[in-house]
Amino acid sequence: DWAAEYGAAALFLVAASPLPQTPSLIFFGIARHDILSVFIAMLAGKLIKYGLFAWLATRFPERFSNGIGGFFRYLRYGGKA
Fold this sequence. Notes:
Number of strands: 0
Low-confidence stretches: none
Number of helices: 5
Radius of gyration: 20 Å
Helix content: over 70%
Shape: elongated
Distance between the termini: 59 Å
């Protein structure tokens, strides 16, 4: 019922979240939902999720060097970093 009630919007939210998509795709297959809308919802959700991961990964080194890396340097040199 949730596949029929919420449609591709629910699948988009599942695809954009860290939840596993396989169970929701099985239910959409059983419900015989429109394949194009399922594809577009999955594509958009994964583009947003992995685009955010890629954006965070490109900014991670500078955050690491000042944040956790600075803390480890502090520990390594006994507070003289």
